[in-house]
Design a protein that fits this description.
about 250 residues, mainly alpha, two-stranded antiparallel sheet, 2 strands, about 75% helix, about 0% strand
């Protein structure tokens, strides 16, 4: 089964927004640190050349500290800020494209998960209905075998005919049990493991039933126990409805 779920997809979206915040934060922090480190107080308040104004810019005058700050540090800082902003903007655009792709993929993944869950549920419901039918038929057949056994013991005529009918019903039991086992294998990943074990144990128990003969009389000793076991499993299967969650 796929390992994606709603929590995983939500975490991916959160990581995307965190990346955007870090990109902008890094730009602002870098510019702030640059201006702070490159702002020497003595340069900013340095003396101006004689005969020159604080803001004069010409070959005969040295730049004042403030002009050096504005034309040098602040100018370079502004260029770097623009560069970092452009870089952050491009990164954000790329992240937004990734977000759209992520959202689209997340929706596809979620749909796959839902489709897979619906398929498992349909398989579970089909298997439960089949198993109930198999067990109902099995209960009916062992009832016939038990009745034929009693008739065999009561009558003195046509014993061979009755005995042949008993063997025919036993063969029918074998086919039903095999069909039930096939259904168990088909649906084992959608049913509770304890129920699967119980079904498998029931098939083994009923499959080992046999008619024993003693002093010319036939005996079907485990008939009542078989009925009880089939009834217990059938009742548990009946508790599984379409709204029941599929075992994972």
């Amino acid at each position: 089964m796929l390992k994606f779920n709603k929590l995983n997809i939500t975490n991916l979206y959160l990581n995307f927004y965190k990346s955007k915040i870090r990109a902008y934060g890094a730009s602002v922090l870098f510019f702030t640190l640059f201006v702070t480190i490159t702002f020497p107080i003595q340069t900013a308040f340095g003396a101006v050349s004689e005969g020159c104004g604080l803001w004069d810019v010409n070959p005969e005058c040295d730049l004042s500290g403030w002009m050096k700050l504005f034309l040098g540090d602040v100018g370079v800082g502004a260029i770097l800020a623009v560069f970092l902003h452009t870089l952050a903007h491009r990164t954000t655009q790329k992240l937004e494209r990734n977000e759209k792709e992520l959202r689209k993929n997340g929706e596809k993944i979620q749909k796959l998960i839902e489709d897979q869950e619906n398929t498992r549920k349909a398989r579970r419901d089909y298997a439960v209905q089949n198993l109930k039918n198999h067990l109902t038929t099995l209960l009916f057949v062992i009832g016939i075998v038990n009745r034929l056994t009693m008739n065999y013991n009561k009558t003195t005529d046509q014993k061979s005919v009755i005995y042949s009918k008993i063997k025919g019903e036993e063969d029918r039991m074998v086919r039903i049990i095999q069909n039930a086992r096939n259904t168990i294998v088909y649906s084992s990943d959608t049913l509770d493991p304890t129920l699967v074990n119980q079904l498998d144990g029931l098939c083994t128990f009923v499959g080992q039933l046999g008619i024993s003969e003693k002093d010319g009389m036939l005996e079907f000793a485990k008939y009542e126990k078989s009925r009880r076991k089939i009834g217990e499993v059938t009742k548990r299967l009946a508790s599984i409805t379409e709204s029941s969650p599929v075992f994972k």
